[in-house]
């Protein structure tokens, strides 16, 4: 670890210790003993700042609460981990974590009607309105991850034995949400290019009707799947689903927060996004948005009344279990939101960077792309069976040789030991880092005498 990174963490922790003195003190100010500790801590911070400025010193803090290692991946490495790239917190979100880390911090100014999406300070109510507009829908709620958005919709619409349409490349959480509601998963097959098309959805719907006597009650379709990040014909499938009066859920776990999404324009009845995967937010966080037509159903309020006390909580939403993202996860999501909105306007640039890297990876003889190519997303599945895996067959470290070589170059996030098929994500990397990443893979190939193709041979 760069000693300056180490000292930044030590400085941040020392400031938190300093802050704790005030959190334990009386509102009237510090007493003599507290003033002494305050002065001593200031001195230690000055020492840390001296080491930080000079780039000297030795690590003094390596664990949090004695057992938890420091996480410095984003400071010390180029991280290409496929599910982490778009979830990196913005500086504003990290500041929110510092300020709003206490459990029920968002509830300081909660007043009647005592519901999360009604809180005005911090501006949570406005944030909900902005979220709905951001994805082109009428109403939105924050949820603990995309999976809880799926669950809210399936528990609203799906009854035991009902059929639900999904893709054969759908995420496991969609399956679990349907199972939890008692429904039956029915998979639409992808074509030879591993892409979902509208005609396949229509054929599946007719097949289900013929077999069961009833149409599916819901379709849950990924715009870009998590396995290959291929683009699927969501708009076409939505049009087909609506011809059969089947509501459709847009799974935007890999789109909402990284590229423009207009739910109504796409034909979605529900839009689900992942905060920690694509909206620069802490986990677990996400968004569920819908149209006014479905809002009263999926955001229904409780009608339950206690038999003895006659207590009732009519303002609380059943599928949300009252309130969802209390505290730091929500406020950090809010803090990142301006940056998230802005970065969706530059999706084309992210694709250029992704394709630049993939183009050069393909020049390493034997390397292939399993996903669509040219890339339409920054997450990509590659096949290096014919290149790096050939080296792994005789290397003493086997497949881990590639991880070792990348680690030497301060690159992380690849699947350790994988040299056949694996995934990476370039989202958010600067052009400087893209060039560094590209050169690193080329250097490793050259070191192990893997042929580098010219442009004509590559194609």
UniProtKB/TrEMBL annotation:
GO MF annotations in UniProt: Sep-tRNA:Cys-tRNA synthase activity
Cofactor(s) essential for the protein: pyridoxal 5'-phosphate
Regions that span the bilayer: none
Sites of N6-(pyridoxal phosphate)lysine modification: 277
Binding site for pyridoxal 5'-phosphate: 146-147, 251, 274-276
Catalysed conversion reaction: O-phospho-L-seryl-tRNA(Cys) + hydrogen sulfide + H(+) = L-cysteinyl-tRNA(Cys) + phosphate
Gene Ontology annotations of biological process type: translation
Family annotation (InterPro entries): PyrdxlP-dep_Trfase, PyrdxlP-dep_Trfase_major, PyrdxlP-dep_Trfase_small, Sep_Cys-tRNA_synth_arc, SepSecS/SepCysS
Keyword Protein biosynthesis attributed: yes
Enzymatic class: transferase
Keywords: Protein biosynthesis, Pyridoxal phosphate, Transferase
Role: Converts O-phospho-L-seryl-tRNA(Cys) (Sep-tRNA(Cys)) to L-cysteinyl-tRNA(Cys) (Cys-tRNA(Cys)).
Known partners and oligomeric status: Homodimer. Interacts with SepRS.
Record protein name field: O-phospho-L-seryl-tRNA:Cys-tRNA synthase
Organism per entry: Methanosphaerula palustris (strain ATCC BAA-1556 / DSM 19958 / E1-9c)
């Amino acid at each position: 670890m760069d000693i300056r990174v180490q000292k930044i963490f030590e400085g941040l922790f020392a400031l938190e210790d300093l802050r704790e003195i005030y959190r334990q003190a009386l509102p009237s100010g510090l007493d003599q003993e507290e003033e002494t500790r305050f002065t001593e801590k200031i001195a230690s911070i000055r020492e840390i700042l001296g080491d930080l400025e000079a780039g000297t010193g030795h690590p003094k803090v390596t664990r949090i609460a004695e057992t938890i290692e420091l996480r410095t991946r984003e400071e010390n490495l180029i991280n290409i981990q496929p599910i982490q790239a778009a979830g990196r917190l913005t500086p504003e979100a990290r500041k929110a974590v510092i300020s709003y880390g206490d459990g029920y911090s968002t509830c300081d100014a909660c007043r009647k009607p005592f519901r999360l999406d009604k809180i005005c300070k911090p501006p949570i109510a406005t944030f909900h309105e902005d979220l709905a507009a951001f994805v082109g829908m009428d109403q939105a709620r924050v949820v603990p991850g995309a999976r809880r958005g799926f669950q809210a919709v399936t528990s609203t619409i799906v009854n035991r034995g009902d059929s639900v349409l999904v893709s054969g490349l759908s995420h496991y959480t969609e399956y679990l949400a349907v199972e939890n509601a008692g429904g039956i998963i029915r998979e639409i097959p992808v074509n030879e290019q591993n892409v979902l098309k509208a005609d396949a959805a229509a054929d599946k719907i007719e097949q289900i009707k013929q077999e069961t006597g009833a149409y599916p009650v819901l379709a849950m379709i990924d715009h870009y799947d998590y396995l290959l990040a291929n683009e699927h014909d969501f708009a076409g499938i939505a049009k087909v689903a609506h011809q059969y009066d089947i509501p459709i859920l847009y799974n935007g776990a890999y789109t909402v927060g990284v590229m423009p999404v207009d739910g109504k324009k796409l034909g979605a009845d529900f839009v689900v996004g992942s905060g920690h995967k694509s909206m620069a937010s802490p986990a677990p966080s996400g968004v569920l948005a819908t149209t006014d037509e479905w809002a009263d159903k999926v955001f229904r309020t409780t009608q339950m009344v206690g038999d003895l006390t006659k207590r009732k909580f009519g303002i609380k939403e059943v599928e949300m279990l009252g309130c969802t993202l209390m505290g730091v996860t929500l406020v950090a999501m809010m803090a990142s939101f301006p940056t998230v909105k802005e970065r969706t306007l530059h999706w084309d640039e992210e694709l250029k960077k992704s394709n630049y890297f993939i183009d050069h990876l393909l020049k390493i003889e034997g390397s292939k792309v399993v996903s669509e190519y040219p890339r339409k997303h920054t997450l990509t599945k590659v096949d290096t069976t014919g290149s790096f895996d050939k080296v792994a067959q005789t290397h003493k470290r086997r497949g881990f040789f590639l991880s070792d070589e990348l680690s030497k170059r301060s690159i992380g996030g690849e699947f350790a030991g994988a040299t056949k098929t694996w995934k990476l994500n370039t989202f958010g990397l600067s052009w400087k880092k893209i060039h560094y990443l590209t050169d690193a893979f080329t250097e490793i190939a050259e070191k192990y005498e893997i042929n580098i193709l010219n442009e004509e041979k590559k194609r």
